[in-house]
Design a protein that fits this description.
alpha/beta; 2-enoyl-CoA Hydratase, Chain A, domain 1; 2 domains; seven-stranded mixed β-sheet; 11 helices
Amino acid sequence: MTNIPTDESVLFSVDDGVATLILNQPEVLNPLSNSMIDGINQCLEQIESDHSIRVLIITGAGRGFCAGYDLSQAAGVPVEEFESRIEAANEASEEKADTNFDRAIKTLSRCPVPTITAINGPAAGGGLGLALLGDVTIAARSAFFVATFNTVLGIVPDLCVSWNVPRRVGRARALGSALLGHRITAEQAEDWGLIWKAVEDDELMSEANRIAGELKRTSPETVTRTRRLIDASLSNEFDAHYELEIEHQNIVRPKNMKIGADAFMEKRKPVFDGTREW
């Protein structure tokens, strides 16, 4: 196992091709502070440069996954200073210069390896957004999800919650959860299709690692292309999407299909090329 030095608010290790990123401020339920976002960016840079990494698991330390934005960075700040920060952020956005938060979210959304988010406790506000950025999201049965943006802070959902939730659960549930801020249990989230599955608390990380093992055996290029296809399908017309599907298939079929067919006929697991294209 290799441990990658980061800020103490994030722990990062790599073991046999599986990277594990742990949000590590358990005493306050792992809020998204500036230092934590910097640590996440550092970890994502490592994943992009280290092509031996095949899967990423994200989870939280202690009894919470992520409590959302670190409100201590806003609470108690003089109004003039807070408004100045917001104005500077808005100006940066207008100039299309990504903030560290923007960079983390965008980089994670196009992570070159499949990502598993293992939700070990409350995922609130921005923590909900982070949870849903996983390609496969699993949750401990004691965990819950809550959109605190509207009811607590008077702001709209961010960290792509307003993009991810409607696509997973539909307009009615997306609006209800966003406007009312009610807790969504792990079982409810599974039933809605918000997450892949709920598991017993003491099985969360073993299940995350089991799924990581499955994903690690697949073709990295095919995983990435499948993600792109699924995301594109939500806005493409049928004919355009069919053409896109063929385009991706024509690239991966010559590389992988005979390997898979031979393994199937011989009743064994296929061994695909583990080379990452991205």
